[in-house]
Amino acid sequence: DVDVAGVIAQRAHGGRHERGVRDALPEGLEYLGRVPPRDDLEIPDRHLGLHLGTEAPLEPGVLDEVAERIRADRLLDLARRPPRPDPRADADPGSSKTDKRVAVARDEAFRFCYPATIERLRERAEVIPFAPTAGDDLPDCDGVYLPGGYPELHTEALADSPAIRQIGTAAADGLPVLGECGGLMALSESLTTADGDTHQMAGVLPADVRMHDRYQALDHVELRARRGALTADSGSRLRGHEFHYSSTDAAADARFAFDVERGDGIDDGRDGLTEYVTLGTYCHVHPDSGAFDAFVDSL
After folding, report:
1. Is residue 180 a contact partner of residue 146, using CB atoms and an 8 Å limit?
2. Sequence-distant (≥ 6) Cβ neighbours of residue 123 within 8 angstroms
3. Strand partners of residue 271
4. Residue 181 annotated in active site
5. What residues contact 75, with CB distance under 8 A and at least 6 apart?
6. All domains of the chain, ordered by start, with CATH?
7. What are the start and end residues of every segment in region (Disordered) (predicted)?
């Protein structure tokens, strides 16, 4: 459960509007201030969401003015309260720390990674970040995680990336690789942009990916494993979400790990392209779904 302690009203005026928000809150939920509606607080959007903070920074003076309307002292007091006990603390010993090393792509092309996912991986393994688009080599590791992001905006850098080529070779040699959405795209044979430019990717998964001008899927997702996979035992369920502007043309003999019980997946009610010990999904799985524990356990 999410422990909500307070609320900051977004795009809220003062006066009667602010009083209405304050009065509407249930007992035990604190009002911590408001962010006023201002044109200079707008963050530009694009496909898949907003520009990242480093791409569209807000003026410090504007942020200072907004901060005056936030009860920062009370916000910090609430943040310092001891958290509720984590039920995972009493989990079975099988979920303890291992000596495995997981290489996680973290750069401009792979930005869609929940902090809770990294925290869960760090609870089980050593996390080694690397930046494929910056020319990094693949680190020495026992497994690779390629999260979602904007590979379509960095196709040339990925096509020239030593790490992407090394992932292709290592995957063929049996290195476990997990790719989600953008990671699936980078693991494919090729990626064609919305402008029609095609670039070679890692070539691990037997599929070609094409970008579109409109989104192809947006939904909560439930998957059932049709066989044992990198992130799930046969018959088990995973939950997550999908949001992407690409489509994937998989080979006729491609193998899939999951049946889609809710959502779209990759193709014909299926998700989770598998090849060697590599898995690529459109679904971003929930950090507490057990998927990342299964991934680490498979290394």
Report:
1. yes
2. 95, 97
3. 258
4. yes
5. 6, 8, 32, 33
6. 6-79 (no CATH), 90-297 (3.40.50.880)
7. 77-101
- pTM, rounded to two decimals: 0.80
Catalytic residue among 113, 141, 181, 283: 181
Question: How do beta strands 278-281 and 177-180 pair?
Answer: parallel
- Backbone φ and ψ for 143, nearest 5 degrees, come out as -165, 160
Cβ burial of 293 (10 Å; 0-12, 13-18, 19+) is buried
Cβ contact 35:21 at 8 Å:
no
> What are the beta bridge partners of residue 146?
179
- DSSP assignment string, 88-135: GGGS-GGGS--S-EEEEE-BTTB-B--HHHHHHHHHHSEEEEE-GGGT
Q: What angle do CA 215, 179, 254 make, to 5 degrees?
A: 85
User: Which residues have C-beta within 8 Å of that of residue 156, sequence separation ≥ 6?
Assistant: 199
Q: CB of 152 within 8 A of CB of 185?
A: yes
